[in-house]
Amino acid sequence: MLDQMLNRALSVAMLFIAMQFISGCAIKKMAVNSVADALADSNSDVFASDNDPQFVGEALPFALKTIESVLQAAPKHEKLLIAATSGFVQYGHAYVLRPAETLESIDFAAARKGKKRAKQFFLRARDYGLRALELGCPGISTELRKQPVVAAKRCLKEDVAALYWTGVAWGSALSVGKSDMALVGELPIVTALMERALALDESWGDGAIHDFFIIFDAGRSKAEGGGMEQAEKHFQRAMELNGGQSISPLVSLAESVCIQQQDLKRFKKLLKQVLAFEADTHPENRLSNLLAQDKAKQLLDNIDEFFFLSDE
Hints:
It contains 15 helices and no strands. It has helices at about 1-20, 25-40, 55-75, 80-105, 110-135, 140-145, 150, 160-175, 180-185, 185-200, 205-220, 230-240, 250-260, 265-275, 285-300. Mean pLDDT is about 85; it is low at about 1-5, about 10-15 and about 40-45.
């Protein structure tokens, strides 16, 4: 999705500028919808095929601002709202949160500032996701805060993309904003959204929902529906569904289950497997896999922060 937004952003932006000079409500509305369709139109691939993560990181803000500009004129365009949600989530993780995490040991103030900024992007993504869900389920934003499970059950299979990205956005904001007690109290909403998405279509995004639950369930007890055994099951299912074409689940398992269990041997084995993966063999997942490899390098470079290592 990222590469598609970037490829279309410039031409769509020029079309959007020209659209401002069109007169006539019906014609202008048609032009707005054409622009929105062009931006949101994509195939089933979730990840970009670009081979230069830095270039994507530099270009993505322009694409996202273009989407936001078009959404001002087409505020109820569902696919574009989902594109905004997914775009801000991915940008926040790869290009804001991850650099902040690398600064923690050398510049705590800068790391804290970066995490705060990441949280803002995640909350922006969440709000776009809620707007997408509202289109098919009016009032769901309010209902989720009262009866999250009941509210989430209103969503149908066609809502899975919005459920997934909204849940990921909300959960990501919570993970970096643990001092925000009001936000922490909304964890049941994240659980309801993601469990509903899983129930409706577990194979969505080639196992992306299962990948989410690897880390999520590793942080929950058995009584809460999670636990290490559940995390392992989600890992196996995620790898089955993606056919070995995505290495993200390997990183998820290493940084959640392996660290909690202090299984250093398996931690290294998984991450070395990630680094040995040839990203060009699956172009449709290239960017995602390259970012997973960057994460693996980061984890290995800071291994002493995660494991109790003896002098040996």
